[in-house]
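Fold it.
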Amino acid sequence: MSGFFNDGSADAPKLRVYLNLDTLLDLRADSLWTHADRLDPQARDALLARDGFDGVQRTDDGPAQPQTCLPHCGASRIDQPAQADAIVARHVARGDRCLTLHAGTGLEDDAQASRLVEALLTAADKHRFAVFLETHRATITQDLWRTVQLVRRFPELRLNGDFSHYYCGQEMTYGDWPAKLAFMEPIFARTGFLHGRIASPGCMQVPITAELARRPPQAHGQCDFLAHFCALWSHAIGGFVQHAGAGDVLVFAPELLSGAYYYARCWPDTQGRLVEESDRYAQALIYKDLIRALFAQVQQDTARPAA
């Protein structure tokens, strides 16, 4: 078992774009997603499928959804090793295709972090279920160095790469960017899930435009954060394609959070009311097209004979 999410087919490794449903919460009044949060799952998923999404990532602990809905995966967290088996079992029983997990608080020593990973891996193996440890601030994967040591200690570990936490949280542009990409290769090789969020060196979540071939006007500073995230995601796609087998699926899920978490930036409008600077659903649609173009490019480059 590769540890990646596998759909049981004989297909070559492929990409599927899910939407993390927290993206739909508290959207601007003028959002392209004009549908009320109270939409039932079938109606919601029908609209998302129309817009090109392959599935959804649920962030709730609710029951299974009707079979007419899009495929769904789950998200959860563990703080103690003893929690891992029950959490994985619950998501298996609910019909999730795979699961992303936050683990710990980031205050654990190496032995405590290892016990959390061991529990996660034991539960994933017992239930024959793809579980992806998320790279996230305030967890055991909060910094690049420690995460690389974990995957060297546990090479079977598979990751959900939310690289905004490194790009902003560790200010990756401060220093040798190529050297940091090279250092991350053990992470890229084990990434089977990606949370879609683009950060700047100083902000966790920033908007881009639909003109993907050009530097966004928002990237007005010293670095082009869109180009950097294209590089991060392309490296992760390359690692997946290299190590995946028949039927393996890379899930990319835009996870664009509201201003309630201080991810989406808010500015006062003409009446002094705070309004998010962008339509997060419109951004998710841009991300969807971007990741598919990147995946196709990596596939093409991988198939091209070496000069």
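The chain has a mean pLDDT of 95.
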